[in-house]
Amino acid sequence: MLGERTVNGRYDHDRIEVGRIEGKFSKLTVVVENSDLEMIDFKIEFADNTNYHPTVNQLFREGTRTRVIDLPPGEHTIKFLDFKYKNTPGGGNAKVGVWAWKIGDGAAAGAPPVPQAPAFNSAGWTLLGEREVHGHGREDHDRIDVGRYEGRFSKLTVVVQDADLEMLDMEVKFGRGESFRPAMNYYFREGTRSRVVDFPGDERVIRAIEFRYRNVPHEGHAKVQVWAKNENADRDHDHDHGAWRFESKGWEMLGEREVHGHGRENSDRIDVGRAMGKFSKLTLVVLDSELEMLDFSIRFKHGEPYHPAVNYFFKEGTRTKVIELSNDGHERTIEAIEFKYRNVPGEGHAKVQVWAQ
Predict the structure, then answer these.
(1) Helix (H, G, I), strand (E, B), or coil: what is residue 22?
(2) Which tens digit of pLDDT belongs to each residue from 194-209?
(3) Residues of the chain by 3-state class (helix, strand, coil), percent to 5
(4) Residue 107: its pLDDT value, please?
(5) What is the per-residue pLDDT for 346?
(6) What single-letter DSSP state applies at residue 320?
(7) Which of 235, 255, 226 is nearest to 336 (CA)?
(8) 120: which residues sit within 8 A by CB, 6+ positions away?
(9) CA 155, 159, 163: angle at the middle one, nearest 5?
(10) Could you please report the per-residue DSSP string of 254-284?
(11) What 3-state DSSP class applies to 60?
(12) pLDDT (0 to 100) of residue 113
């Protein structure tokens, strides 16, 4: 660790003196703690009076860090580090720490110990989808299709799990053909999320979300989730004094089950049958506690069963995106719905509801 500074006020300059006694370094990273931070400029000056301005002018979430910055060839003794930055409105005073990789120390030096960010409270948010990032350090492209049945949203956030991730670009495509590129090109630590992104204009129907990103070498495969919220959900949350509820108008409940056991796998089945009619889409709602969904199968009267990709953790008071039951838009008769899931240890018994249209 080369040093740390606390950011005071809305616009601040700071310097960390390093010097020859610290040794020579080949790379460094900047860690942000205690509050969000907007980095305006960052300069590294070396002992031979050359300097380097890495591109880090972006918003940092509390508990995140920059990508690993490789220092340019030549002099590797750092004289000092200069910052221009500011705290974000409404936040506290961020603390900035600079960690460097000393030449000759080897891999045993490890990575800087970034504090674990608080878990994302997803009450009132809708999970639009998730993707696993493939490749080790190679650029990857992915797309999450959403569609008009999800409703209208005014904001979203991105949650990163399982490994660190470098986000290169993200584009939100709306239902009427417009698109929006939020400033999302920065480094995510495992277990962190982006700021809340407000859409321009009124609430929007999201058609698709496209990413360009890459895993950090030797860090595993990151998983990216996109959560969205609309203004009606905010108002319902306030009205109910924090008790989120699914807006079920136009939906029919096919059944619900309580998940038994504490951390043990549980299997359940909801029988539906032709008496309920035919449906073209459905969604799952999780209430009362958190839940880990292991497998989910929809069995139809005719044809092969369908296994939607819903193997992830649900927070209490959340739901899946709308699951389309056929590619051609035709309704299908559901015979039964089968689950494999388990409660999160210490969190009580979750209740799972299945709603269809």
Answers:
(1) helix
(2) 777 888 776 678 888 9
(3) 5, 50, 45
(4) 40
(5) 62
(6) P
(7) 255
(8) 157, 159, 193, 227, 315
(9) 160
(10) EEEEEPPSSSS-EEEEEE--GGG-EESEEEE
(11) strand
(12) 46
Q: Please report where in the chains the tokens 């299945």 appear, as a residue.
A: 354
Say what the pLDDT of residue 171 is: 92
Residue 290 CA to residue 351 CA, distance in Å, equals 9
Q: Judge contact between 187 and 39, C-beta under 8 A.
A: no
Instruction: Find, among 237, 239, 208, 232, the residue nearest to 321 by Cα.
Output: 208
* Count of C-beta atoms within a 10 Å radius of residue 183: 11
Contacts of 329 (CB under 8 A, 6+ apart): 280
* Six-digit token string for 130: 């998730």
CA–CA gap between residue 24 and residue 71 (Å, rounded): 11
How far out from the chain centre does Cα 36 lie?
A: 16
Please write the tens of the pLDDT for every residue from 270-328.
888 766 778 888 888 888 778 888 888 999 888 888 888 776 677 777 887 788 887 66
Token pair belonging to 185:
């090109």
H-helix segments, 137-196? none
Q: In angstroms, rounded to a whole number, what is the distance separating the alpha carbons of residues 275 and 277?
A: 5
Cβ–Cβ under 8 Å, residues 82 and 42:
yes
Token pair, residue 142, equals: 């992915």
Q: What is the DSSP letter of 104?
A: T
b (16+ CB within 10 A) / e for 264-284: eebebebebeeeeeebbbbbb
pLDDT, residue 210, reads 93
CA 163-168-169 angle, 5° bins: 120
pLDDT at 102: 76
Asked if 125 and 159 count as a contact pair (C-beta separation under 8 A), the reply is no
Q: Label residue 217 exposed, middle or buried (CB < 10 Å: 0-12, 13-18, 19+).
A: exposed
Using only C-alpha atoms, the chain has a radius of gyration, in whole angstroms, of 24
Task: Please report which residue ranges of the chain form alpha helices under DSSP H.
Answer: 231-239
Confidence of residue 338 (pLDDT cuts 50, 70, 90): very high
Burial of 246 (0-12, 13-18, 19+ CB in 10 A): buried
